[in-house]
Design brief:
This protein is of the alpha/beta class and about 280 residues long. It is about 40% helix and about 10% strand. It holds the Pfam family MMR_HSR1.
Length: about 280
């Protein structure tokens, strides 16, 4: 399954990003801490690399990701790349200071009222970029929502007298070739509902949970180890039966079971989960 989800306004947004990049000192990229690789935009990263701009990657939603794995990602970016990385949560007001300090460190020649830091902030839809902007400004400047593609226009935002942001729409690339990547994005509610199959996304999610969070999976759905060791299709069926999600003829409702699994992951009812690991 190659996921294709590229709303028309994103073509214009990509061109606007390229145009405005030269007027900014650095790039702040927001990714989902649960899947830092799958939630970054390779199309934009290549543009940033070509322009040789300082690059700060914010691993947002770190409060719902596996804390140990998030720290592994921070170490990875700092040791293996030229990208600075910081774990943040839009719910943590203290992170405003952390983000500003990280930016000032990257552009030490800026950061006064005369020469404020000028940062352009990017991220694919629904990684929490708008919520972070509201955190930085301490106001509800940017629209937020739990569906992708809320922001559709670039806007200049004065955070403080020494810090200015250029906001951009959530930008996807044209085609997600990897099945794993596409389904991780789907499971994490980052791409639109019409672009994926819920049962397929739940199967990929279960594959990860079985391998890395088997005890959390067993605890949430009262499953035993013999079921956990079965194919993910059997686990979806077992959960449907356990939760009495049945169709006519007492057949398990596999789609409803899949939707419940996705919802439980998104609402942290299974626990703090990371889907991607640096060593893999």
């Amino acid at each position: 399954m190659a996921v294709q989800w590229f709303p028309g306004h994103m073509t214009k947004a990509k061109k606007d990003f390229e145009k405005n990049l030269k007027y900014n000192d650095l790039v702040i990229e927001v990714v989902d801490a649960r899947l830092p690789r799958s939630s970054e935009n390779p199309m934009l990263n290549q543009i940033i690399k070509n322009r040789a701009k300082p690059h700060l990657k914010l691993l947002n939603k770190s409060d719902i990701a596996d804390e140990k794995v998030t720290q592994q990602w921070i170490n990875f970016f700092q040791k293996e790349t030229t990208i600075s990385a910081l774990a943040v949560s839009a719910k943590n007001k203290k992170n405003k200071v952390d983000i500003k300090k990280a930016c000032m460190k990257l552009v030490p020649h800026r950061g006064t009222s005369i020469k404020p830091v000028r940062a352009i902030i990017i991220g694919i839809p629904n990684v929490g970029k708008s919520s972070l902007i509201n955190l930085l400004t301490q106001k509800k400047i940017a629209k937020t929502g739990d569906v992708p593609a809320v922001t559709q226009m670039q806007q200049r935002i004065i955070v403080d007298n020494d810090f200015v942001l250029t906001d951009t729409p959530g930008l996807m690339w044209h085609k997600i070739e990897s099945e794993v990547q596409g389904n991780y994005l789907a499971a994490s509610n980052i791409i639109g509902i019409n672009a994926y199959d819920e049962t397929e996304a739940a199967l990929y999610l279960l594959d990860c949970l079985k391998e890395n969070y088997s005890q959390s999976l067993m605890d949430r759905y009262e499953l035993d180890a013999t079921i956990i060791n079965q194919p993910s299709e059997d686990i979806i069926e077992a959960i449907a039966i356990k939760k009495h999600m049945l169709l006519k003829g007492n057949n398990p409702d596999l789609r409803k079971s899949a939707v419940i699994i996705l919802q439980d992951y998104r609402s942290q009812k299974i626990g703090r989960i990371s889907l991607e690991f640096p060593e893999k």
